[in-house]
Each structure stands twice: as structure tokens, then as C-alpha cells.
């Protein structure tokens, strides 16, 4: 399913945990892990100091990717390493495009410092810009990094983006032998009473049921067991509740969502979910199937 998995590495403890997770996934699908260090030469302070600082960043980058290569040495996966200079998020996205990466596995936080990829805001920027799916792994002690995935949650609003994410999730679940849970959230929490009466709860619930049914049918075609659920309220909060209540291992979201009154805004929602749920979140671009 994936041939090349890109992993930006900064040498932090959290990044090492996330690297282990990326290695597990790569081993399961037979992918090569591309370990990348971005020397952040886009900072004004680096530009002002000049070439000596850049050389130091390059040396630290080489040491970091060599460490990652050592850590992956016993996993049996193929490893490639590289060090590049530039803006971290843009460099990661450009690298993925240039070297035909199929998936970016991105820790959601790293240590800060001159030249080190600060994987927080960088993660969100990569998710917005990336032409390929991005697996966000929060580097916190409460993160549940279980593999292989046994239960995959697919939030859906029936939009093109959500359908693309569902296709990707079903294919991944089939590869790993996981089950799929389809969840649609009727986002009526922010609507005034008069607007809800005009829209009609029956119609929005019907749309939500149709959306989860479509995902379940996709899963059934691959012989995958699929659950179907509809909830009301804030999409991000509902997704978080579902993850906690149903022992979910992975959440797969579309990068954007539909624009109707009953929409599931899977752009901003994806960012909120990635910051809050204690499991990895896979974001799939709208044109990636």
C-alpha cells in the first residue's frame, strides 16, 4: 500500500517513539523509511550569523539521521537518510513530492532550538500543504501507539474528501486485518434554534446515516467488519468521545469537508482531532485515494 514512508526526525525522545511506530508500519507493508532532517536555515537569526551556523546545523543533521538509521537497524526495513536546508514544513512537503513519498509520518512535537524542526506548528502546516497522506503521531506519554491497528475510525460527512479518506482507510484496514468504524457527526451545536427548524433534524440525520452506510458498504466489499454510528454536536469532541469509548487505534480523516449546514469541517476538525486524541491521526488529501 505504501512503498516509501517519509519520517522527519529531530532526535528527540518523542521522535524516537514515533520512529518505532513508523518502522512497525513500514515492516507491515514492505515500505522503505526515508529519514529526513531539515536544518531550519529560514530563520532570520541563522541568516544573520552565516555559514558557520549552517555548517553546524548540517553536522547535527547528519548525526541525527545516522542515529535514526542505527535505531532502525534491527527492524529489517530499508532505510534512506538525507539532510536538507530550508523552511521545515515546505522542505518536508517538497521532499515528499520530489521523491515520490506515499506517506509522511510526522511527530506532532519536537524539541525547539536553532536549526531543529519544531514539530508542532510545522505538523499543521505540512498537513495543509501535503499532496500525500500524513500520519500525525503526538509525542506524549498518554499516546496509544498500538500496532498493528485493530480498530480504525473513519469520521465522514459524505463529502468527496471524506469518501477519499474512507477509501484509503478501508484499503489500509484490509492490508492490516483491522476493522472499520464509520462515524458521522451532525454538527448542530453551533446552529440557532430557528436555523435547526428550517434545516430539519430528520434530513441531517438521514444524511449522516447515508454517509456511514456508504463507508460500511465499502468495507464490506473488502470483507471487513464495519460499525456505523451517528452523533450530534461538535465533530472534534464527538470523535474524541468515540475514540475513548471504543478503544480506537487510528483515526482517518479527509483534509477538507463539505460546506452545507450539516457539514463536518474536516480541515479544521482534523487539526483539532490530531491535537487532542490519544491515538495517531491519518489525514488524507481530497484527491488521494
TrEMBL record:
<dbReference type="InterPro" id="IPR014729">
    <property type="entry name" value="Rossmann-like_a/b/a_fold"/>
</dbReference>
<protein>
    <submittedName>
        <fullName>Universal stress protein</fullName>
    </submittedName>
</protein>
<feature type="domain" description="UspA">
    <location>
        <begin position="149"/>
        <end position="285"/>
    </location>
</feature>
<feature type="domain" description="UspA">
    <location>
        <begin position="1"/>
        <end position="138"/>
    </location>
</feature>
<comment type="similarity">
    <text>Belongs to the universal stress protein A family.</text>
</comment>
<dbReference type="Pfam" id="PF00582">
    <property type="entry name" value="Usp"/>
</dbReference>
<dbReference type="InterPro" id="IPR006016">
    <property type="entry name" value="UspA"/>
</dbReference>
<dbReference type="InterPro" id="IPR006015">
    <property type="entry name" value="Universal_stress_UspA"/>
</dbReference>
